């Protein structure tokens, strides 16, 4: 049942309650102020002829009328109460039903929304997890690459440093030995033993010497 | 006529000394020739000559007749050698003996120029070998230079040891 129908039913119920309330008020008003009520309607037709009844009968009739009116009123009040109870029960029931329906619908919608949100969240989480996994893989790759690069660079640097140190040591050794040789050999020169060597190196530089002498001349 | 300088005449100083000796000898020879020409019996003692000068004069007497003109010609030629011969300065690691000097001078005169003049010097720091100064160029063939030039090989040699 949709909300428009429910509203119409409520309006009808309110209308009926209003009618019953009006009737009850009129009955009560007539009951408690009968003389005024008797005065208000002005008969359009000629007054009926007064029948002469004895006062006891009148009293009896009045009492019985009162009793009867009271019964009718009680009965009406009871019926009204019963109707009101029924209406209220029905209304409650209807309201419960409507409320339940609304609640169910809302719950359903809420569940759907929740499900949708859950799915969205799940998708987002899955995407995020995939991104995290991807990022982790990228980081791992990057780290591995960097590690390899660093290792290569470090090896290269160590190798360069090693070469540099070896070269320095070699230079020092060469300098030391050359210095040692130049210091020690100059005190033990045997020129006679060097003559074959001297003539051989002169032979090897003969062309240069001739060229220089020609230039000089 | 060309004369080959004796190997004992190595440097320009040696050559100058030789020229002076030959001049002395030429002067004495002139005097003796005049004496002979005017029939003077007295013969003065000839000046003492070094083996190099003796060798040259002997060569002159063998190739030409010994007279004043030829002696003067030889002196002029020696002077020309002194002025025009190529001069080489040789540095050795110690003071060379005459024999070593002769060997080196002989090599230069056989291979470079027959009248090359060699000035000898010594420098112990070159350790060995020879340094030749020719004109504006220095040909360093000393042990020191070779050691310093090849000192980068020393570690390699040591590694092999």
Characterization of this structure:
The complex is a heterodimer of chains A (217) and B (161). Chain A starts with a helix and ends with a helix. Chain A has 217 residues and is mostly helical. In chain A, helix 1 packs antiparallel against helix 3. The longest helix of chain A has 131 residues, at 55-185. Chain A has 5 helices and no strands. With 161 residues, chain B is α+β, with helices and mostly antiparallel strands. Helix content of chain B is 52%, strand content 15%. Chain B has helices at 12-37, 51-63, 68-84, 98-111, 143-149, 154-160, and strands spanning 87-92, 117-122, 129-134, 137-142. A 4-stranded mixed β-sheet of chain B has the order 2-1-3-4. In chain B, strand 1 (87-92), helix 4 (98-111) and strand 2 (117-122) form a beta-alpha-beta unit. The A-B interface holds A 169-170, 173-175, 177-178, 181-182, 185-187, 189, 191-192, 194-195, 197-199, 201-203, 205-206, 208-210, 212-213, 215-217 and B 86, 88, 92-94, 96-97, 100, 103-104, 107, 111-113, 116, 124-125, 127-130, 132, 134-137, 139, 141, 143-144, 147-148, 151-152, 154-155, 158.
């Amino acid at each position: 049942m949709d909300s428009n129908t429910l509203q119409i039913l409520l309006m009808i119920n309110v209308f009926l309650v209003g009618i019953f309330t009006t009737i009850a008020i009129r009955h009560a008003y007539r009951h408690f102020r009968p003389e005024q009520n008797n005065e208000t309607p002005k008969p359009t037709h000629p007054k009926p002829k007064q029948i002469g009844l004895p006062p006891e009968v009148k009293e009896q009739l009045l009492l019985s009328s009162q009793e009867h009116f009271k019964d009718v009123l009680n009965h009406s009040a009871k019926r009204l109460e019963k109707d009101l109870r029924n209406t209220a029960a029905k209304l409650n029931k209807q309201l419960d039903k409507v409320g339940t329906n609304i609640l169910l619908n809302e719950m359903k919608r809420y569940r759907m929304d929740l499900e949708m949100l859950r799915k969205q969240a799940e998708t987002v989480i899955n995407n995020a997890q995939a991104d995290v996994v991807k990022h982790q893989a990228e980081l791992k790759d990057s780290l591995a690459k960097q590690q390899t690069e660093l290792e290569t660079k470090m090896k290269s640097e160590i190798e360069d440093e090693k070469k540099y140190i070896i070269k320095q040591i070699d230079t020092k050794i060469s300098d030391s030995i050359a210095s040692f040789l130049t210091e020690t050999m100059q005190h033990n020169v045997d020129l006679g033993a060097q003559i074959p060597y001297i003539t051989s190196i002169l032979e090897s530089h003969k062309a240069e010497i001739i060229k220089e002498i020609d230039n000089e001349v | 006529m060309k004369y080959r300088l004796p190997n004992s005449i190595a440097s320009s100083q040696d050559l100058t000394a030789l020229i002076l000796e030959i001049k002395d000898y030429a002067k004495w020879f002139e005097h003796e020739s005049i004496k002979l020409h005017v029939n003077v019996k007295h013969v003065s003692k000839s000046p003492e000559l070094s083996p190099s000068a003796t060798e040259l004069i002997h060569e002159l007497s063998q190739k030409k007749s010994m007279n004043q003109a030829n002696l003067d010609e030889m002196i002029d030629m020696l002077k020309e050698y002194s002025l025009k011969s190529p001069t080489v300065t040789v540095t050795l690691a110690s003071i060379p003996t005459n024999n070593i000097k002769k060997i080196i001078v002989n090599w230069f005169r056989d291979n470079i120029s027959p009248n090359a003049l060699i000035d000898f010097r010594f420098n112990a720091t070159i350790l060995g070998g020879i340094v030749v100064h020719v004109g504006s160029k220095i040909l360093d063939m000393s042990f020191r230079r070779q050691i310093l030039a090849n000192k980068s090989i020393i570690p390699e040699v040591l590694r092999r040891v």
